[in-house]
Structures are given as C-alpha cells and as structure tokens.
Design brief:
heterodimer; A: mainly alpha; MetI-like fold; 14 helices; 0% strand; globular; B: mainly alpha
C-alpha cells in the first residue's frame, strides 16, 4: 500500500474518532441542555414539560443510544436539529459557510500575493539589505496576533483617516458585492497579513535551497536570463513547502476565524461555534466541529495530492 | 554554557533572549509586588488618564494603572505558557518514546489518536476543552497543553524510531540496561536538540493562544490582570483612550516575537542544516 492509499483508508477512521471525541466532550459540559437552551425561562417549565422537550430532542436516552442514532442519521446526511435556531444543523452551517469560505479565499489570495514575491525577492538577494528588511518584516508579521493587528488597523484607519470599518448588517456577496467587499477587506487583510509573513519565510528558505542546486547553476551557465531561471526553473520546485503551508492555513481558515470574526462582527462559522458552545447547543456544536474537521482533513488530503502533481519523484516512493 | 554563548553570538538569538529576559524581569517584579502602583487599586479621580509621569502608560476606565497591570499580566501569560508547554512536552515526549519503543499496535493506536487530535484546528479544540471545563487559568493550561501535545509526540517519535535501531542501543540492551534507562539516557538525550527548538516555538504559540482565549473571555477571568482581557476591554474606548489598546497589544506581540527569535536562533545553532535559512 502506498502512502496515498493508506491516507485514504485512514480517513473514515479518523473522522469516526473525531466524531466520538466531539460527542463525548460536549456531553461532559456541566449543566443540562434544556436549561441552557431556554435560559431564565427554564424556571417556568414544569419537570414534565422539560422531560417532553428532552424526549423531543432525544436527550433522554443513554449516551450510547444517542451516539448510535446520531451516527446513523449522519450517514443519511442528517446532522440533527439545532435547539437555538430551531432548524436543521446542516442548513444553519451552510448559511454561514459562504462568508467563511469567502474570507478564507480572500486571505489566501492576499497572503500569496505578498508572501511568494517577497520570499523570492529576499532569496535572490540573500544576506543583503533587502533580504534583511524582508526577514525582519516577516518575523514581526508572524509574531503579531490577528487580534492585535486587527485592532491596530481599525485604530489607525479611524484616527488617521476618520474611516471606520463597515460593520453592522452584513451584506452577502451575491446581493451587494461592493458593500460586501468593503466589509471583507479589513478582516481579509488582517488574516492575510500574518499568513503572508509565514509564507514569505517558507518561500524564501525553499528558494534558497533550490537556487543552490546544480541544475540552476547549469541553467545560469548556459546563459539563461536570471529572471527566467528564477521564475521558470527554480520557483516551481520551491513551491512544495508553499503549497503545504497554504493548504494547512486554508484548512484552518475554513474552520472560521473566531477572533477576527468577533472583532469585525462578521456572522461566520467561527463565531457561530463559539456561541453554540456557550449555549450548549449539542447538535450544532457536534455538526459544526465535524464539518470543520472534515474540511480540514479534505484540504490536507488535497495537499498530499498536490505533492504528487508537483513532484513526480514522490510518485515512485511508497 | 556553550549554548548560551552561541545564543548571544547569534543576532536574532541575542535580541530574542534579551526580550525574553526583560519580560521575565518585569514579571518577577510584578510577582513581588514591585509595581509603580497597586494593579487592582482604582484611582477614581484619574480615570482614563493618558500616559504621564505618574502613570507611565496611562490608566483604564476604573483608574487602574496600566503599566502595573501589564507587569502582572505578563506574569500571568508566562505562567500559563510555561506550564502548558511543560505539560505538553512532558506527556508528548513520554507518548512519543512509548510509540517508537513498543512499536506495532501501540505505535499505530497512539499515532492514530494523535491524528484525531490534529484533525481539529487548534483554537477550536482549545475552545471545546474550555467549554467542558469552564473558563479559567487552569483550563487554559490544560487546553493549550492538550492541543500542543500531539506535535511533541511526533517530534519525539520520529528520531526515536531511527535511534532505536542504532548499534549503541543494542549494545546497551546486551549490557542489561533497563528499558527506562535506555529510553531516557540513549533516546531522549539524543532528541534534546529538536525538542528544545520545538519548546521555544511552542512558548510563542502558547502565549498567542492564552491571549486569544482571554480575549474571547475564555481564559483568565477579571479582575486578575491579563493581556488578552485588557486588549478586549480596550475595544470600546479605542478612540478616546488608544493607550488602552496599544500597550497590551504591543506587549503581547513583543513576547511572541522574543520566543520566535529565540526559537529561530536555537534551530540555527542546534541544526546546522538550516543555518541562515529561516
């Protein structure tokens, strides 16, 4: 069995493990779901009414029965009903997902647009002033938490230019693209900046490795123009670590950027999970965490596939 | 000693170690109560006082001295970071050694369990643990440790697997050395270098996560001074009192930067292959 088949075979097993872990964890949360769901109004219910509600959501059965039912329904594409929204979990997730996906794609684009050229530029001027400046910038960028950078950005814009980020009612991309971009640009920049910093470092070090290879020296000796050596000969071979890191980061971003969504008041997946955890919406937490972990694992699998495409040498190895 | 000299010869090591030492000194002064003011005292007449000679970094909405709160906040962040990384590295090292040494089904089961943990985005797993255990300092330590443990397990398992087949391990076994002796003396001691690098970088990451959890209200609880909580509280007053946001923001950033620089320097020093690359 080669690595890829093994990864594919392990995929459902890991997913099953993730689902049981989430299922157990959420049931260890102190307090019962019905009280948490209704808040202070729970006091107005008679025990019989509470019982009836618990029975309706299937919360009165033993854990193992609940888990079995949940898995069985899951296999049929049913993630259960969210008690806070009163709607099917899958629907609630899918309503939030477009924003999270858009934010992830925009951040990735910003990061690639800054990180790869900066890394390549620094590598071609290794140990000179420009290289040092890029490295210092990347190091600071990597050390700045998104919430610090986000708040500084909001402050500088409002103090320096009197501009406040457009918050409040969220405009979906397909209804009002311009207003949507206006709301998304700062969050995307906030997430993209930190990500660009780590991409710059990876791209620089991968480029340095490739530039010291014999075939690059040969190409130079043959008189191939420097620009062509860098972009045509060296860069494609330096891309593997860049692809890996982009994949991992993209997988994280698909899970929702809890803190950045919180700062910019965006109704994405991350903030929804946070609320669902705080409100003990079992079905919603289970469904969303599984959804996020699934995305994360799929992206990582795609990254592995990308290796095969980028580096024919890996294909031969088992 | 040789390592310390090497760190101070390395440009980013010098800066990183300097920052970390300065933070440790501030945290120590804070812990001894040697702060400019009492971090919890509310100076009602000096609320939202801008930075001045008496309040170096200004005061907050309750008239509490920001500089004093920062000093204790650093101590709080460092305690959580050091404890959580120690727990993560300790358990991770034991599991990694066990997986490599016992092999077969143990290795398979342990590493699949780690795969499951790694399938969660880190902050999500930490949030889930906080939800189960309730917010607070102890929970933050456990949550961060739990999230980082699989990475230490992998860092230790890889080299342990290759060391296990080396002749000196066979020799030790034939001399009748106990398993525990071989694991600690022959395997673990030879993995100290990659482990040290990972620990330093993990400290940077732990500081970040602690501040993030506190920022979301899931970490250190008020009124205890915490960098993340201070930053979160500053949001509504950003325009009237920007120092409330800038001081803790730059403090968090500086701490992470210090450990990142130190980690990079250690990697250069301990792993000659990557010298000057990262």
């Amino acid at each position: 069995m080669n690595t890829l088949t093994r990864r594919l075979a392990a995929f459902p097993l890991v997913l099953l493990g993730v689902s049981s872990l989430v299922f157990m964890a959420i049931r260890l949360v102190p307090g019962d779901a019905i009280t948490a769901m209704l808040g202070t109004e729970a006091g107005l219910l008679t025990p019989a009414q509470k019982q009836a509600l618990a029975a309706y959501f299937g919360l009165d059965r033993p854990w193992i029965v609940q888990y079995g039912r949940w898995l069985w329904a899951l296999l049929h594409g049913d993630l259960g009903i969210s008690v806070t929204y009163g709607k099917p979990v899958l629907g609630v997730i899918l309503a939030r997902f477009p924003l999270t996906l858009e934010l992830a794609v925009l951040s990735l684009l910003i990061a690639l647009a800054i990180g790869v050229p900066a890394g390549v530029y620094a590598a071609t001027r290794a140990e000179k002033g420009a290289d040092l400046a890029v490295r210092v910038g990347a190091m600071i960028g990597q050390s700045t938490p998104s919430f610090v950078f986000g708040l500084l950005l909001i402050y500088l814009l409002s103090a320096g230019f009197g501009v406040l980020p457009a918050m409040g009612t969220f405009a979906p991309l397909w209804l009002d693209p311009l207003a949507n971009l206006g709301q998304m640009i700062l969050p995307a920049l906030t997430l993209g900046a930190a990500f660009a910093a780590s991409l710059t470092r990876i791209a620089r070090s991968a480029m340095l490795d490739v530039l010291s290879e014999d075939y690059v020296r040969t190409a130079r000796a043959r008189g191939v123009p420097a620009r062509q050596v860098i972009w045509r000969h060296a860069l494609p071979n330096a891309l593997i670590p860049v692809v890996t890191l982009s994949g991992i980061e993209f997988g994280y971003l698909l899970g929702g950027a809890v803190i950045v969504e919180q700062i910019y008041a965006l109704p994405g997946l991350g903030r929804m999970v946070l609320d669902a955890i705080l409100q003990r919406d079992y079905a919603l937490v289970q469904g969303t965490v599984l959804f996020i972990a699934f995305n994360f694992m799929v992206v990582n699998l795609l990254v592995d596939l990308a290796y095969f495409w980028l580096d024919p040498r890996i294909r031969g190895r088992g | 000693m040789a390592l310390l000299r090497a760190i101070f010869r390395h440009p980013s090591g010098r800066i990183g170690a300097g920052i970390v030492l300065a933070y440790l000194a501030l945290a120590a002064l804070g812990a001894l109560g040697l702060t400019p003011h009492d971090p919890l005292a509310q100076h009602r007449l000096d609320r939202l006082h801008p930075p001045s000679a008496s309040y170096w970094l200004g005061t907050d909405l309750f008239g509490r001295d920001i500089a004093s709160r920062l000093m204790q906040g650093i101590g709080q962040s460092f305690r959580v970071a050091f404890l959580s990384v120690a727990v993560a590295a300790g358990i991770g090292a034991v599991l990694g050694l066990a997986a490599a040494w016992f092999g077969r089904i143990w290795d398979g089961a342990l590493m699949r369990a780690m795969d499951i943990l790694l399938a969660f985005p880190a902050i999500l797993l930490a949030m889930l643990i906080v939800a189960v255990m309730g917010p607070g300092t102890r929970t933050s330590v456990l949550a961060i440790a739990f999230v980082y443990m699989p990475i230490f397990t992998r860092v230790v398992r890889g080299p342990a697997l290759s060391l296990k087949t080396r002749d000196f391990v066979d020799a030790a076994r034939s001399f009748g050395s106990s398993t525990v002796y071989i694991l600690t003396r022959h395997l673990l001691l030879n993995i100290v270098a990659p482990l040290t690098v990972q620990v330093t970088l993990a400290l940077a990451w732990a500081l970040l996560t602690e501040a993030g959890l506190s920022f979301l209200g899931l970490g250190t609880q008020p009124p205890a001074p915490s960098l993340g909580v201070m930053l979160s509280d500053s949001r509504n007053l950003m325009e009237t009192a920007p120092w409330l946001m800038i001081a803790p923001g730059l403090t968090i950033m500086g701490g992470i930067l210090g450990f990142n620089l130190l980690g990079d320097a250690l990697r250069d020093i301990l792993d000659p292959k990557t010298r000057g690359r990262a």
